Amino acid sequence: MSNPNKYLLIVTGPTGIGKTDSSISLAKHWKTEIISCDSRQMYREMNIGTAVPSSEQLAAVPHHFIGNLSIHDYYNAYHFETEVLNLLDKLYSDNNIVIIAGGSGLYLDAVLYGMDDIPDPDPVLRNKLTQRMIKDGVKVLAEELREIDPEYYDEVDINNPKRVLRGLEVWFSTGQKFSSFRIRKDRPRPFIPLIVNLEMEREKLYTRINQRVDMMIKEGLEKEALGLYPLKGLNALNTVGYKEWFDYFEGQYPVEEAIRLIKRNSRHYAKRQITWNKKYKGMLNVHPESVQDIINWVEYQRNLSG
Question: What is the mean pLDDT of residues 49-78?
């Protein structure tokens, strides 16, 4: 059962919309802390391409789950759920409202609803499936996934080789569908969730995304990606902003095309995030600059439940 005196304020929305600035303003208002829900900002080797908050932003408000992992570490949504719930026990002793900010939908769902511990990947099986994907292409394996686990197929980005491989790995190693390990919405939580979904006109959002990519490039994204290129096979690096550079380093296209693809793929990712967030009920849809509106809404919800 939810604790009527504890609240988890969720600040979500598509990449590039301004979740960091909004959540910091809100955290300052309630003198609380921020849990990052960005599955890529956890990796300390990936800074520029994942838009990790600046040192000034991190100093303004205590943040958690940023730079806490190495790209060599195995980590999943189940681990995140467990660690966040343990952290919340501590944070709620000092404040009855905590903020979680980020756009990794699966990780957010794990905190809200719970997730079973999905078995670790079998290296031999993964290598076998990877070789099949190289030979036959991701679409062939995605079709196989559709036959095995249509529920997961309907949700997953079938153009993402990592997600397709993961679904097949689980099936062949356990005999159970990946979707059977997914969200179970009957698990009690020690908080009342208040979900704020940041939104703006699509054209303006896409302009912001393009401008942010330009800024990343000025800050040295190409150099950061080059340093990680020898490790490109790691799952953590199958990420927009890095995989496009890896193909450029291999001579698949010129630098201008790499930049164009990063911008395009970032916009596509934002579109998928927007679609994912539509499933949440009772949330506040608001412009990222409307911080006072968020504060007013949260206090209204707290009064209703209090």
Answer: 94
